[in-house]
C-alpha cells in the first residue's frame, strides 16, 4: 500500500469489524508486527515460528528450533532478525530473509519474555522465570568468539530474586521498565546501572501480566491481575506517574492483553471471556469508545498495526482475525473537482463558462510547458517518514523472498547454514550473585 495515499483525516478512527483472517498456522499463541507493518510473526504452541505476509495473509516462512511453546516473539528494528523465546529454556535469533538460525541461547529456567533493544539489534533483554532480568550483548558472537557479555547487573535490594519479571525498553533504550509478579514497577537506568524509581501499583500483591511503552515513549501501559489496566505518564527524568485506570465496573473482567494505538491516543484491552471482547478507551479522558465482540473462543494475544487502523487478534483456537474500520466512500479522492453536498444547491452559471476559447493560445501555452526542462530523479527513492520514530538513517527490508515448497525425503533433513549454541549457566549464576 502506498503510505502517501492514506487519508490523514481518518487516522483517528478505531477498527470495528472483522474483514479477513490470516492463513491458519495452527495453535498460534503470540504475535508481533514488524516495524513497517507488512509482516506478522507468530509463535505456536508446538514451538514453531511463523511469518505471514500481511497483504496476502499467507504464510511465507516457518522456523522450527524450539521444543516447547513460544512465550514471546520480537522483530529487530530493521526487520532482518527475529527473536523468539520458549518454555524450553532457550532463546533463538532467526534471519528473517534466509530463514537460518543465527544464534541459540540456553538458560536454566523457562523464558517468560525477550525483546531486542529498540536501537541496537546486538543487545537483547531476557526475562527468565523466577530470575532477575538479563541484558545481553551478542557482539562477541558476531566477532567469532564463544562468549557473550552481560550489560545489566541488578544489585538493588528492592528488586528481589525468585520473582517473575516482565520488562520493556524506553524509546531509545537508555532505561528499562520492569513489572514483577508482586505488583511492583521498577525504573532502571542502563548506562548508570542504578535504580531510578520503584513503586507498588496497589496495596495488595497483584501480578503484573503485561507492560508496554507507547511509540512516542511518553506513556507506560500496565496490565495486572487486579482487573485493571493502568496508564502512567513518563517524565523527562524517567520517573512515572499514574494517569488513568481502565476496567469494566460491571463484569470485572480479567484482561488477557493490552496495547497502545500507533498515535498513542487510544488504549485497547482484551477480556478473557468467551466470546472475547475488546475494549477501546480514549487515553486522554479515559472514556470508553467502543466494545468489539469476537468469536466464541477466548483470546490469547492481540496487536495494533504500527501505523494503520488495523488490529489483529489471536484466539485460543482458530485463525488470526483482522479488524478494520468501516470504509466510507469519498468520491473527492477520485475526482479532485468533485464536491460532496449535504443538500441541494442552486447552481449559478458563470458568464464565460461556455464562451469559445481560442485554441491557438492554448497550443502555445502547451508548447511552452513541454519545452520547459524539468529534472526527474528516477534513481533515488524518497524515504517516507511513516512513523513517529522514523530516522533518516534507518535501513530495513521491504520484502521477504518466498521460496517454493520442497518435498523432502524421510532420510533427508535441511539444517541451518550457521548454528551457534551458547550455554548461559554461568551467566545466570553471575546475575544471581549480583
Automatic annotation (TrEMBL):
Key word Ion transport present: no
WD repeat boundaries on the chain: 63-104
The keyword Membrane is assigned to this record: no
Start and end residues of each Pep3/Vps18 beta-propeller domain: 176-347
Cellular component, GO annotation: Set1C/COMPASS complex
Gene3D superfamilies assigned to the protein according to its UniProt record, in alphabetical order: YVTN repeat-like/Quinoprotein amine dehydrogenase
UniProtKB keywords: Coiled coil, Nucleus, Repeat, WD repeat
Chief localization: nucleus
Annotated InterPro entries: Pep3/Vps18_beta-prop, RBBP5/Swd1, WD40/YVTN_repeat-like_dom_sf, WD40_repeat_dom_sf, WD40_rpt
Coiled coil location: 354-382
UniProt subcellular location: Nucleus
Alphabetized PANTHER family for the sequence: RETINOBLASTOMA-BINDING PROTEIN 5
Protein name: WD40 repeat-like protein
Organism: Anaeromyces robustus
